[in-house]
């Protein structure tokens, strides 16, 4: 076991973790701001993936596929918020859960109706093909790209939330919903935008994942499970906890290949149980 | 059992004239008429992830019956189909229903879990099962006198693939394996190690991954670091597809990627053409196998369904064709006689010269090694890969776990 290999696995883990973080960041924005457990988040990831696949392969341009996926998932998010979730803001968790779970099933079946059950693949665009030779092993250029995009987007959203007027309103909405609306701010529009932003992030994560995992109708469910683990690990209600937790999950999963490869999936859940046992509020959660 | 059936039939006939037939008909007519017709069942997934495959099994099975003239030894053949949903419990329930309609021969399991569950019912109810799937338990630890297995033994698959690689690349001695961590993958690894030992292959590393893993880059990174000549994937289905996909991102030119049982032809469109180029894959069936029986089958299949058959369609067809051939040779549609004839039978299947092993009920048949076609040289949309080698080495008896196949 060389130090070199450990470093490469660490890089691989950060790359995987960045995608998880992107996915979970959207989920935690929706959870934090709207207090909604978005069980349709996996379906939004699925839609992003298929739209990116369809646009990229029919127009032969991955660079159009990425924004198309973000817009499509965000648009579906707007519809879900306006016509579904909005009616249930005051209701019990169970109703929200049922609605979103139902929406997820409907969306998944729509994807099957349109694209069938057989998976598909997409190669990365030419410029991102191949790998960088790190001496001990190779590292795909495409993974460097997804890491870079994920971090840029996360930093961008951090900037919007922390440094702009719009972000200030969002943060205010997180803390004191009634006060914000008493100040004459259109909180309904704000909620729609926040939901669309979270959904768009899921779409982006889905699109970025396509050259890595391809498209298949079960990919949304697979990713949703990991995203919820990440959000819980990060701390419910803490928007940024999801980023740290996402990276942690990616790194643990990748490092496990060095010592206990067959436990890569189990370790993620074992880690969740451990953290919940010793720090019930999650990594960055407050209570 | 015979006399109550006859009397039941008489009762039924009486009932029919009284207009009561509708109530009792399905169960009783089926049984009573079993002697004057052959009822063949295909219990296969119509819905769910493998829904597409189930449809093809039925198409193939139906074609076998049609091409036999729809009758055997003067009796009409009736085809009954049921949806197993790809779940063992449902598969068993649907099988019982089909049996009550008079089915005496069935195929279609596609999934090993469903097939092994059905195998117990087949033995209990004394009906003939022709199964398929990657599990060697069908003809190993859970072998049964009433079950025959169509898919090749995994030993045959691994041997054929390793023989080809050694022939093509005699210097490729360093192998790295990525193995699905359950019975199927472990079985493949066991054989790879046994065969590799004779060939002087050095296994420089192996990673077991959980079934259904979505991320393989951590294993691939590790594999590449140990500088193997060959990266051998001992997994299957979507696991193999995802590994091949992610391996492609590395553009690792010097490493040959091979997989003895990774994916069937019908899954090949899941990979982009660039990802398929140069990969070496083992196949139970490929439509351009050059045998008289297969040419005839492919032509009829294309004409009937508009596309070349894949593994599922070939299984549906060839398994029923084999049973019908045995019944013709036996001169009766009786299940026990058919089984006795099948045991040790030598014949030309669509795959080539084939025998059925009496001790295990394994169909000992050729296994095909294919190489992915360069996208620029593809002649048509389904020209994914071409057969480059055929192997049919039987699993050595000392590696087989079938102790007692049972009695009729």
Question: Would you kindly provide a written description of the structure presented here, covering whatever features stand out?
Answer:
The complex is a heterodimer of chains A (287) and B (408). Chain A is mainly α and 287 residues long. Chain A has eleven helices and two strands. Chain A has a two-stranded antiparallel sheet. In chain A, a hairpin with a 4-residue loop joins β1 (131-133) and β2 (138-140). In chain A, α3 (62-83) packs antiparallel against α8 (187-213), α9 crosses α10 and α9 runs parallel beside α11. The longest helix of chain A has 32 residues, at 3-34. Chain B is built from 13 helices and 16 strands. A seven-stranded mixed beta sheet of chain B has the order 8-7-9-10-11-15-16, sandwiched between helices. Chain B has a six-stranded mixed beta sheet with strand order 2-3-1-4-5-6, sandwiched between helices. In chain B, β13 and β14 form a beta hairpin. The longest helix of chain B is centred in the last third of the chain and has 20 residues, at 311-330. Chains A and B meet through α1, β2, α8, α10 and α11 of A and β8, α8 and α9 of B.
């Amino acid at each position: 076991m060389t130090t070199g290999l450990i470093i490469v696995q660490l890089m691989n883990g950060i790359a995987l973790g960045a995608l998880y973080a992107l996915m979970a960041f959207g989920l935690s924005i929706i959870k934090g701001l709207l207090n909604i457990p978005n069980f349709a988040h996996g379906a939004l990831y699925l839609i992003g993936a298929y739209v990116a696949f369809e646009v990229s392969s029919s127009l032969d341009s991955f660079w159009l596929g990425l924004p198309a996926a973000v817009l499509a998932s965000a648009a579906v998010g707007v519809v879900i918020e306006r016509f579904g979730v909005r009616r249930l803001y005051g209701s019990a968790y169970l109703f929200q859960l049922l609605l979103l779970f139902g929406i997820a099933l409907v969306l998944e079946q729509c994807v099957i109706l349109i694209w069938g059950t057989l998976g598909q693949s997409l190669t990365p665009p030419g410029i991102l093909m191949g790998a960088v030779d790190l001496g001990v092993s190779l590292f795909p250029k495409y993974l460097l790209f997804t890491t870079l995009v994920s971090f840029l987007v996360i930093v961008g959203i951090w900037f919007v939330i922390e440094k702009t007027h719009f972000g200030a309103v969002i943060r205010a909405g997180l803390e004191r919903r009634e006060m914000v609306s008493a100040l004459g701010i259109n909180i309904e529009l704000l909620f729609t935008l926040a939901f669309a932003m979270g959904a768009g992030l899921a779409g982006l994560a889905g699109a970025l994942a396509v050259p890595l995992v391809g498209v298949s109708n079960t990919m949304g469910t697979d990713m949703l499970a990991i995203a919820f683990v990440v959000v819980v690990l990060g701390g419910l209600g803490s928007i940024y906890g999801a980023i740290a937790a996402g990276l942690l999950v990616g790194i643990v999963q990748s490092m496990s290949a060095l010592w206990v490869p067959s436990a890569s999936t189990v370790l993620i859940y074992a880690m969740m149980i451990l953290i919940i046992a010793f720090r019930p509020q999650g990594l960055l959660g407050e209570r | 059992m015979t006399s109550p059936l006859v009397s039941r039939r008489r009762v039924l006939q009486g009932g029919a004239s009284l207009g009561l037939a509708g109530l009792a008909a399905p169960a009783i007519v089926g049984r009573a008429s079993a002697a004057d017709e052959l009822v063949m069942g295909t219990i296969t997934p119509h819905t769910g992830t493998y829904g597409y495959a189930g449809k093809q099994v039925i198409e193939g099975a139906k074609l076998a019956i049609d091409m036999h003239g729809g009758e055997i030894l003067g009796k009409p053949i009736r085809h009954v189909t049921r949806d197993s949903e790809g779940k063992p419990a449902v598969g068993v329930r649907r099988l019982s229903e089909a049996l009550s309609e008079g089915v005496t021969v069935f195929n279609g399991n596609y999934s090993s879990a469903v097939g092994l569950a059905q195998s117990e019912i087949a033995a209990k109810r004394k009906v003939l099962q022709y199964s398929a799937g990657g599990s060697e338990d069908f003809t190993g630890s859970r072998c049964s006198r009433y079950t025959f297995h169509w898919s090749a033994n995994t030993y045959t698959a691994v041997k054929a693939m390793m023989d080809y690689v050694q022939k093509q690349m005699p210097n490729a001695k360093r192998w790295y394996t990525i193995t699905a961590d359950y019975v199927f993958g472990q079985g493949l690894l066991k054989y790879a190690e046994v065969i590799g030992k004779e060939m002087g292959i050095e296994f420089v590393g192996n990673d077991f991954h959980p079934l259904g893993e979505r991320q393989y880059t951590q294993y691939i990174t590790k594999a590449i670091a140990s500088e193997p000549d060959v990266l051998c994937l001992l997994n299957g289905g979507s696991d193999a597809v995802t590994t091949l996909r992610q391996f492609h991102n590395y553009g690792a030119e010097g490493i040959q990627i091979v997989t003895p049982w990774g994916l069937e032809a019908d899954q090949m469109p899941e990979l982009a053409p660039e990802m398929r180029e140069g990969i070496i894959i083992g196949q139970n069936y490929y439509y351009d196998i050059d045998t008289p029986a297969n040419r005839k089958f492919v032509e009829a299949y294309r004409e009937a369904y508009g596309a070349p058959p894949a593994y599922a369609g070939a299984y549906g067809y060839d398994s029923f064709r084999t049973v019908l051939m045995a019944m013709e040779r036996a001169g009766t549609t009786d299940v026990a006689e058919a089984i006795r004839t099948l045991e040790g039978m030598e014949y030309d299947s669509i795959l080539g010269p084939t025998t059925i092993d009496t001790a295990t009920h394994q169909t000992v048949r050729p296994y095909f090694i294919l190489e992915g076609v360069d996208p620029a040289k593809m002649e048509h949309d389904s020209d994914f890969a071409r057969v480059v080698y055929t192997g049919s080495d039987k699993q050595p008896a000392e590696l087989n776990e079938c102790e007692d196949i049972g009695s009729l």
